[in-house]
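Quick log. Single chain, no ligands specified.
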Amino acid sequence: KMSGLFMVGLPLLKKYFFQLQRLLAMHMPHLCNHLAQQGVEPTIYASKWFMTVCICNFPFSTVVRIWDIFLAEGVKIIFRVALALLKLNQDTLLNESFESILETLKQAPSRVESDTLIQVALSFKLKNKTLKDIETEWWAQSSSAM
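-> predicted structure:
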């Protein structure tokens, strides 16, 4: 399944960005609006998180824990980690503009304690049905755009 991350046009990655954007709007609408106003989209900050399954910029102890969950539940943990990083940095991000937001998000994985990140990530109750519903919406939008 993950091969779609590296296919021409990056179809799987585009779907993940769409899903993350929708999840952010559901869980943190104020932050979602602020990031949109600043022109910050998941394509800018979440590529490495999805393409490397959270290896880049994360401490090894955190990577091991994320991968343990990834092997058990799949990509859902990457959405949860992304939402957790955004939530843990929400107050800072809401007071920043474009360049500062990108720097905060770049540094976020290395600045958060592993236990805290995993605890907050797992606090997001993310159902497979929710991801599937957002995927269906993405397919509908993608096919109508063609």
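The two ends are 23 Å apart (CA to CA).
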